[in-house]
Structure formats: C-alpha cells, structure tokens
Amino acid sequence: MKSIASAPGKIILFGEHFVVHGTKAILAAIDKRVTVTSTFTENKTIKVNSELGTIEVPISSSHEEVESKFRPFVYLANEMITSNQDINGLEITINSDIPIGVGLGSSSACCVAATASISGLFKEVSSEDNLKMSIEAEKTIFPNTSGADCTVCTYGGMIIYDKISGIEKIDNTSDLNFIITNTMIPHSTKRSVEKVSKFKEDYDEEWDEMFVDMEVIIDTAIQAIKNNDVVTLGKRMYQNHQTLAAIGVSNDTLDYVIRELNKISFGSKITGAGDGGCIITLIEEENVDKAPEIVGNDRECFSAKIDTKGVELKREK
Ligand code: MEV
Known about the structure:
Layout: E1 2-14, E2 25-41, E3 45-50, E4 53-58, H1 71-83, E5 89-96, H2 106-120, H3 127-139, H4 148-155, E6 158-162, E7 166-170, E8 178-182, H5 189-202, H6 204-226, H7 230-246, H8 252-262, E9 267-271, E10 278-282, H9 291-295, E11 300-304, E12 312-316
Parallel strand pairs: 3-5
Antiparallel strand pairs: 1-2, 1-12, 2-5, 2-6, 3-4, 6-7, 8-10, 8-11, 9-10
Helix pairs in contact: 1-2, 1-3, 2-3, 2-4, 3-4, 5-6, 6-7
C-alpha cells in the first residue's frame, strides 16, 4: 500500500506576525507543491527521505531526539503507530518544488501533506482533522505558529484566516498577478517570531497602535480584493510592509528591492516571517518581464498563480 499526498506552498498577502497575536491574515496557496509518499515496511523503523537528507530511527524513538528538519514526520509517524499497534515500520519520502526556508510555506505544506499521506495508509481523514494534526506536527518546530500557513496549505485558494472565528474563502482572485522574489537572504521563522514577541513586550504602546493600524489595513484590503481594486490592494500591501519594517523584520536590502519593485507594480511587501526570504509584488501582466532586471542577478524572481487545490490524497494498492 502506497499513500501519496500533496499540498501547496503559500504566500501571505497581509497580516504575518500580527496574526500570531490576534489579527486576521490574508493568505493564498501557490502553484508549487510538496508531495509526500508513505509506505509500510517490516524494518521496525521510521525512515524519512528528503532532499535535506535521510534518517532511520527505531520505531519507538521520540520526535524530540531527531534533528528539527525531521521532527514533524517522526511525530506524525509516532501518532499513527500509537493508534495502530500492529505496524512494523514506516517509510516517508518527501519531494518538493517549493523552495525551502524562504517563507513560501514549505514546512507547513510538508506537515499538511505528511499528515494526509501517513494517515492515508489507514483511512482518509477529513480536512478539519488533517489540519488539526498538521498544526500539532508544525508545533514540534514552531511552537508559536498561528496555524495560518497550515490552514491555507490544507484548503488552497485565497483565504481570510482568523485564529478565533475560522476561515473565509475569497473566490474572485483570478485576475491577480503576483511575482515572487527570492532574495536568497536566509532567515529563521522561529527567530523572527521570537523577535517580534520581544518587540511587543518592549514597546507595548507602539505595538498596540500598530495592531489597530494593521486591523484597518487588513479590513480595507479585504474590501479591495472583493471589489477587484488592485490599486488600493497594492497600496495596502506596501503599507503592511512598512508596518513590518517598523516591528523590525525587514532590512535595508529588502526595503530597497521593494521600493524599486513598487515603481513597476501596484505594491510589494515581504511575505512570511521576513528578515530575508521572499518578497511578493502585485503587478500588471504586461510589467512582469521588467521585474528580473530590477531584482538583479543574485536574486531569483518568478510569477506565481493562486492554486485553488488544497491537500490531495491518492492511495495505491
Ligand atoms: C510565517 O509564514 C508567518 C508568521 O506569521 C508566523 C505564523 O503565522 O505562525 C510569521
């Protein structure tokens, strides 16, 4: 029995970091996916193969004993093994076309696809249960995750995410063209999230003001998306970027590239944790070709389509 699941990567259009502390966020799935294949083995081990390496650990190993890049998979394997006692071993293979560690949701897509793939060896679980389990898996590497990334990787399309009141899908997004610039500056989501929490503690009054501003930015962005008003949407994106810069997750290089991209687009911002990683730009189709020259040879840029498909599972005998 082979259980194969795939999930899309993501961009955050609005609300990264603030969503961890209670604002809404707007996210979209993109047309780059991770595929996870799981099979039973007789080896009394959990084996994980990915482009980041391979591990094989005894079936009773705790996820805490393995390197963080393998932790969600060992965690999920253990969860399934505990509830299905007669398993001898599992092998999990990850193939991804989402660039790793650049803010495009590769770890969330891995957690979502791995949950569906491993549980698919036993039964197909509902999207809601798949999401809950994948967030727990992601917490083994990002304990403070808002759950927003796993949510969009599960459902696909564009969503408004709210930790308390759930999600709302936005349908009329086919006219939006984005380009993604990979700045090639390495970053750590965990470290950036911790840095923002420290900022919130140290500058509580400034934070409270920015939090209210972010809520307004997001609400007006939602209206702009619903009205197909790309001009306002782009302006709100850059405003969101300036707020992210004010809480300390941008830098001079990112700010410079974003300002340059703004000249040929409706607006740009960092996407995801920041401190490096990727920039998203809302742009008219006819200006897409101007972007590579602006971002320069040492950065990579590509256009992204919004992917309407979330997690998908295929089981083969
Ligand atoms: C990371 O892609 C997005 C953050 O808002 C963290 C989170 O929501 O868990 C920075």
